[in-house]
Design brief:
Blueprint: H1 5-37, H2 86-103, E1 106-107, H3 112-117, H4 125-135, H5 138-146, E2 150-164, E3 167-179, E4 185-198, E5 201-209
Antiparallel strand pairs: 1-2, 2-3, 3-4, 4-5
Length: about 220
C-alpha cells in the first residue's frame, strides 16, 4: 500500500528518532570505554598480575614415578690389556717428573757429584755416570762458571711414547729458568725419558732429546 504524504513524513521522523537513539547509545558506550582506558598504566617495574590469582587454586599434578635409566654398559678396564697397572703408571710418571725437576736444576757453584746426587735415587747407576760426565764437560762447565748460571727446573709429562713388560717411555717437557750474567732466560726442551722396573718401583734408565728417538 502506498503511503500518503503525511504518513511518509511521520515515518521519516520515526527513523530520525531511531537513528538518534542509536547514535546516543553508541556514543555513551564508547565514552564509557574510553573513560576506563584513561586509567594510568601500571609502573614499568610493577610485577605482572599472576594468572593464578584470578583462578581457583589447582591441584598439583600427580607425581610421576620416573624410574631412572640404569646403563648396564660399563667403561672397559683398559689396564687388563696392559703390562702395568694404573698405580704403576702413575708411580712411573711421578718418578719421571721428579727426575726432570732435578735434571733442570743446577748451579755454577756445584760440581758434577753434587749435581748428580739430587737424582741418584731416581736413576740407574749407568745413567748417573753418563749425566755426571756430561755435566763436567770442560766447555759446558767453564761457560756455566763464567756466566754464573743458576737454573731452576720444572718438568711435566706430556705423553706416553712407548711401553713394554718392564719399561715405559714418557715425553717429558723440562723447563729451565736460568739466571746468569749473560744469556739468562727460560727454555723448555722435550725429552724421551725411559724408566725400567715394574709395579710401583721405577728408575730412569735413559734420557734423549725427543727427536732422537728412545722409543
Amino acid at each position: 500500500m502506498e503511503l500518503s504524504a503525511a504518513q511518509r513524513r511521520i515515518a521519516f521522523v520515526l527513523v530520525v528518532f531511531a537513528l538518534a537513539g542509536l547514535g546516543i547509545y553508541l556514543f555513551t558506550s564508547r565514552h564509557g570505554a574510553a573513560h576506563q582506558s584513561t586509567a594510568p598504566p601500571p609502573r614499568h617495574n610493577a610485577a605482572p598480575p599472576s594468572r593464578e590469582s584470578s583462578q581457583e587454586p589447582s591441584q598439583p599434578p600427580a607425581a610421576t614415578s620416573a624410574t631412572p635409566s640404569v646403563s648396564t654398559t660399563q667403561a672397559p678396564d683398559i689396564y687388563q690389556w696392559l703390562p702395568f697397572t694404573q698405580a704403576g703408571l702413575s708411580s712411573a710418571a711421578v718418578i719421571a717428573v721428579r727426575f726432570g725437576d732435578a735434571y733442570g736444576t743446577f748451579s755454577y757453584t756445584e760440581n758434577a757429584a753434587a749435581y748428580v746426587a739430587t737424582m741418584r735415587s731416581l736413576v740407574i747407576p749407568q745413567l748417573s755416570g753418563q749425566i755426571s760426565a756430561a755435566y763436567a764437560t770442560p766447555g759446558v762447565a767453564s761457560m756455566r762458571t763464567s756466566r754464573k748460571q743458576v737454573s731452576t727446573g720444572s718438568a711435566a709429562v706430556t705423553s706416553l711414547r712407548a711401553f713394554g713388560p718392564s719399561s715405559l717411555t714418557f715425553i717429558v717437557a723440562i723447563t729451565e729458568r736460568i739466571t746468569a750474567t749473560k744469556g739468562a732466560g727460560q727454555t723448555t726442551t722435550s725429552y724421551a725419558v725411559t724408566l725400567t722396573g715394574g709395579d710401583t718401583s721405577w728408575q730412569v734408565s735413559d734420557i734423549e732429546l725427543e727427536g732422537a728417538g728412545n722409543s
